[in-house]
Design a protein that fits this description.
Blueprint (H helix, E strand, L loop, with lengths): L5 H25 L9 E3 L34 E3 L14 H32 L4
Antiparallel strand pairs: 1-2
Length: 129
Amino acid sequence: MLEKISVFKTAYAMARHAGARQAVLAQNIANADSPGYRAKDIAPFRVAPDQGRADAGMVATRATHLSGANVATPLRINEARDRSSDPNKNSISLQDEMLHAVAAKRQHDRALAIYRSGLRILRSSLGGK
């Protein structure tokens, strides 16, 4: 039931993105001393509107309205070219990777907060506590 409500779809997609990004950043940290290793990252999370799917559940009255997040979108891992180079010819900076990991954790926490808030609203609308 919850997978058909767009706020829960969005929270799920955001949590999935944060988890995938955390895995990529952990791989970067594990390869910090590997010569020639290039840092990787995932594109920032953004909510994409469903594009004409029949099972979307909502109808947009204007083209600018969103009808939920498309959670089936695959995550692409790209080389992070904006990172500085190290003497051993890799592009890993542990400080930068830790900052990116903290940002991914915050995104995951935000997704869980959105999910909890949505559940609280849903429960209160049904008369529960």
